[in-house]
Design goal:
Among the domains are: about 370-575, Rossmann fold (3-Layer(aba) Sandwich), CATH 3.40.50.1700; about 620-734, Sandwich (Immunoglobulin-like). The strands form seven sheets. A six-stranded mixed beta sheet has the order 10-15-14-13-11-12, with helices on both faces. The protein has a four-stranded parallel beta sheet with strand order 1-2-3-4, with no helix packed on it. It has a four-stranded antiparallel beta sheet with strand order 19-18-23-24, with no helix packed on it. By secondary structure, the protein is α/β, with parallel strands linked by helices. It contains 22 helices and 24 strands. Helix 8 (about 165-180) packs parallel to helix 10 and helix 13 packs across helix 14 (about 320-325). The site of beta-D-glucopyranose has 7 residues, from loops.
């Protein structure tokens, strides 16, 4: 009888497990049966990615020697190569096509740092969703975004690609982008597999120099650099890309601790891990592998699945050496199978086995018009602009202004405003800032233009003409900053002042009677001390993509009241870097009157503009701040409320930010940590009561043994419109 019951239970388990575990079990079974049929070459092929199309590519696809291709951007071409995989290769395993869709595919959205300035994850998700739609419609099923690297170093050019310095804001933006790219299910025709990159701590490159080494404690890794990746994994991101840098002596692309112990064992990541561009091959240059064969061994055994740039012409790592390693008994087939399984799982989950081609009917039936896309892109661009200074309400521009001077080459170069990392840009989709201003200027307002200068050069020959244009005008808008090539990959700078002769021009312009507004276009915080002291109004416009011209004009004329807040600190000088709001107190906090305290002889510690900062054309007053708990127990949530009143003359949006500080703990804690925020619209004269719930997990931190803990004691809760001007209250929790 007992036996019958046991057998019955087993039968029930066998029958129902597939239903209980659903699709995932079915997928694993399909992978099992495919693995049984695959030759070694075909297995290795799945671990090899080709960049672009070479003379061997067609043959490699036919013989199953490549599993994915990077860089093809049209549906027709994708179909052409996919057809070979499906119709001419032995096992008909579909290829997956990848691209870097960082801020839009053909419709270019603001750069990620700009989008993070919106503090509007819902809108960022919409932007990512349109990027996915456009990419998928052209056959890109795998996106190498979001870049979720935290960085505290504006010298690093790639800071433009991320969401700034804060792990919480970075996590919120990572989740929004992944949801936008992947949706609930990335097999949907309009969705793509997302990639959280670059794992990990790439943004901590020493001295802000791209690809440089990283040496940080495990604590800092866990507290600052890992959280957005953990959020990505919890959002079921499909893949992770390993970083170029070494971390504490072990290159990230061969780092078992991060790729296996943290990512797979601790976080249970089920997706695919791909290298960055030849980053396993570069183990040789790191001096970590004596040759490409050892590099392949170290990469695979640390947890790398796919070798990017690994086709039979360029690839000299996985494609030749995995086989040799197996023959030499340095690896066994199970480690190859494990990696292949991860790749096949991604392809099955992406629906490629059933639908290897672009579902063109879907895109015909669900057409999103360019107007509809531009509407979102425009809103995203407007919300990304940060008003840094506005003395005497110089902005918005007076509607009755007779003559406006627009100066600077970037005001008319449509390509500069797109920024680095465009994908397949359509330069005709947008208008320049100059055209945007002309479009919105009222009848009777004359818009004069002179290039004056270009950030790329030291040529001053245009100065006199531009200065004379300014002196004829009632107000001048000067476009300054970095041309697009000055930020992005391999674009680190040691000097983050305005490049070229721009400052010299701005100083000359400021000597004239005409009030000057500076609009900055750049991909990183800049040290703009002189302008910030002497120029009455400054707008940070980053690179806003196709809708840049319209968005900037809309803010200048007050059609949109700026609401952006900085996702990163603006230093006063390069000497302050790294500078960030969530610093530690030190044993000798800075004091004006104490020489032996933590400060500089030649500069204040404070930044030029703090994290979370951004002005509006209206003003918000914070009052009735209250912090309550029902029991004062550490395991209960804290209810925080504050009234925010619009006391100015324009309706506007405010980003209400909540920070906490754990005053005394077994591990030193930052003086402030962002834990929540809400963006709200408030009409003139109106008050909104904002409520936050601070949960126990928000008060937790990594204890001495790197396990999350919560310690009773005194906490400070802060609320305000940036990381510096805050109301605060202490609370003791037992
Ligand atoms: C970048 C990656 C990118 C890859 C493929 C590399 O140089 O670091 O972010 O995904 O190229 O384009």
């Amino acid at each position: 009888m007992k036996n019958i019951i046991i057998k019955l239970i087993l039968l029930i388990i066998i029958i129902f497990t597939p239903y209980l575990q659903g699709q995932s079990l079915a997928v694993e079974q399909k992978i099992d049966s495919l693995l049984l049929k695959m030759t070694l070459d075909e297995k290795i092929g799945q671990l090899v990615q080709s960049v672009g199309i070479k003379e061997n590519t067609i043959e490699d696809i036919r013989s199953g020697k490549i599993g994915s291709i990077l860089g093809i951007k049209s549906a027709d071409e994708v179909s052409k190569f996919q057809k070979i995989a499906i119709e001419e290769s032995r096992l008909k395993i579909p290829l997956i096509f990848a691209n870097d869709v960082i801020h839009g595919f053909s419709t270019t959205f603001p750069i990620p740092l700009a989008e993070a300035s919106s503090w509007n994850p819902e809108l960022v998700k919409k932007s990512a969703s349109i990027a996915a739609y456009e990419a998928a419609s052209e056959g890109t099923k795998w996106n190498y975004a979001p870049m979720v690297d935290i960085s505290r170093d504006p010298r690093w050019g790639r800071i433009m690609e991320g969401s700034g310095e804060d792990p919480y804001l970075g996590s919120v933006m990572a989740i929004a982008r992944i949801e936008g790219f992947q949706g609930d299910d990335f097999s949907h025709p309009s969705k793509v597999v997302a990639t959280a990159k670059h794992f990990v701590a790439y943004g901590a490159a020493e001295a802000g120099r791209d690809y440089n080494s990283v040496d940080i404690s495990e604590r800092r890794l866990r507290e600052i650099y890992l959280p957005p990746f953990l959020s990505a994994v919890n959002s079921e991101v499909g893949s992770i890309m390993s970083a170029f840098n070494d971390i504490n002596g072990i290159p990230a692309s061969a780092n078992k601790f991060i790729l296996t112990e943290i990512l797979r064992d601790e976080w249970k990541f089920k997706g695919t891990v791909i290298t960055d561009y030849n980053s396993v091959g570069e183990l040789v240059y790191h001096g970590f592998a004596k040759d490409k064969k050892e590099a392949a061994l170290k990469g695979l055994t640390a947890g790398i699945d796919i070798d990017m740039v690994g086709d039979t012409i360029d690839g000299d790592v996985y494609s030749p050496h995995l086989k040799e390693l197996l023959e030499d008994n340095l690896i066994d087939i199970s480690s190859i199978d494990k990696a292949v399984r991860n790749v096949l799982r991604m392809k099955f989950n992406a629906g490629l086995f059933e639908k290897p081609y672009v579902d063109s009917t879907y895109f015909v039936e669900n057409n999103i018009s360019q107007d509809a896309k531009n509407k979102i892109a425009l809103q995203m661009a407007k919300e990304s602009i940060v008003l840094l200074k506005n003395d005497n309400n110089l902005l918005p521009l007076n509607k009755k202004t007779k003559k406006i001077a627009v100066i600077g080459s970037m005001a008319e170069n449509e390509y500069d405003q797109l920024g680095a990392w465009t994908c397949k840009p359509n330069y005709k989709n947008g208008i320049s800032a100059l055209e945007g201003i002309r479009e919105l200027a009222k009848e009777g307002t004359e818009v004069l233009f002179a290039r004056g200068f270009d950030p790329r050069s030291n040529d001053k020959s245009g100065f006199e003409e531009a200065l004379s244009v300014i002196s004829q005008a009632n107000v001048a808008v000067v476009f300054a900053g970095e041309n697009w090539e000055l930020s992005g990959e391999a674009a680190s700078r040691t000097d983050i002042n305005l490049p070229g002769v721009q400052l010299e021009f701005i100083k000359r312009a400021q000597e004239l009677e005409t009030p000057i507004i500076v609009v900055l276009m750049n991909g990183r915080p800049l040290t703009i001390n002189w302008s910030s002291q002497n120029i009455p109004a400054i707008l940070e416009a980053w690179y806003l993509g196709d809708m840049s011209g319209k968005a900037i004009a809309s803010v200048l004329f007050g059609e949109y009241n700026p609401s952006g807040k900085l996702p990163i600190t603006f230093p006063r000088s390069v000497g302050q870097i790294p500078i960030y709001y969530n610093a530690k107190s030190t044993g000798r906090p800075a004091r004006e009157d104490v020489k032996w305290s933590s400060k500089y002889l030649d500069s204040p510690n404070t930044p030029l503009y703090p994290f979370g900062f951004g002005l509006s054309y209206t003003q918000f007053k914070y009052s009735n701040f209250s912090v309550n708990t029902s029991s004062n127990s550490i395991s209960d949530s804290i209810i925080v409320t504050v009234d925010v009143t619009n006391i100015g003359k324009y309706a506007g949006e405010e980003v209400v930010q909540l920070y906490i500080q754990d005053l005394f703990a077994s591990v030193t804690r930052p003086i402030k940590e962002l834990k929540s925020f809400k963006k709200i619209k408030i009409d003139v004269g109106k008050t909104e009561t904002i409520k936050f719930i601070v949960t126990p997990s928000m008060l937790s931190f990594y204890g001495i043994d790197m396990k999350k803990i919560i310690e009773p004691g005194e906490f400070k809760i802060f609320v305000g419109g940036n990381s510096t001007d805050l109301l605060s209250e202490s609370i003791i929790l037992n």
